[in-house]
Design a protein that fits this description.
alpha/beta
Length: 358
Amino acid sequence: MTLKVARQGHFFVEGSYQPSKGRMVSGSMAVFYQIPETEGGHKLPLVIIHGAWQTGVNFLETPDGREGWASFFLRRGYPVYVVDQIGRGRSAYAPSLDDFVRSRPSVDIVCDYFTAPSKAMLYPQAAQHSQWVGNGQPGDPVFEHFYASQTDGIADRTLNEALGRSAGINLVDKIGECILLCHSQAGPIGWGIANERPEAVKAVVAIEPSGPPFFDIDFPAGEHGFEESQLVRPYGLTALPLEYAPSVQSSSELAHDLHPSADPQRYAACRLQVGPPRQLSRFTMPILLLTSECSYHSVYDHGTSNYLSQAGVDHDFIRLEELGIHGNGHFMMLEQNCEVVAGVVADWLDAQTPESRA
């Protein structure tokens, strides 16, 4: 079917002037948009925010040259806005202005966590990973194309979240009511935008968002077992404050402890609040948490779901294998069956936001 686009283009969400640096602006975010020419399409646009070390290219095309999720959702009638996070891709980074410490993934990280986890076997679920196109290792043309797309990112995750939340809020203010689709590192950014603009954000699709609550999980090499590392999300889902009821003035007021896993060889113990749980009172929109069968997120995304439930957030937690969709890793939007996975998201959106039909 021919894809008909009524209009498309780029614009920038403006950043802010930095007085100490003279008349220069920091924190501008590039946005690529396409509006489909479709009768009976969707009124609500889809805002897509990519994850760490990536750009919006993740959603425009797969590394082996197939159409990406942006085109899939355009065909389903959604206006689509694809951003480049601050300091990446077309969102400018100026060393003289932005004092960011940069980070970029090594080949080993990309292979072990994204493209060929069954070779490293850092967690048991990795053995079933089969949906990446090619062997996922250096020398394979699909891997080389994907690795070429990796970019430097802002190593300070709190700063990255702050810049992303601010730019995302400005984008929502510009385009109005919308749906957020956030992958991986963009998860906390999406939670923050929804927290600040609950009337405008009509649904959140969190594709393996950064987690689990509070602490990162490490995968000790050569053994199956999971360890907490550093506290990076002191507000549970985010590094920056969220609106809780009763309110919290400091993250230290969010008491939490570790809840054991029923199957510690496959699933990590994750944290929940202690005592009467404070509620995430602004998360009243439909929320989907989507996890693949063979990603490292499969080890701990249940912790994010349990935390949302404890905080009074009604949401759907879907593991792809429970729908008979097997073999996917963290970059499910790039793998062989990416259209099948996109269909899960589209069907969920159709059911949850029927009012969005034009």
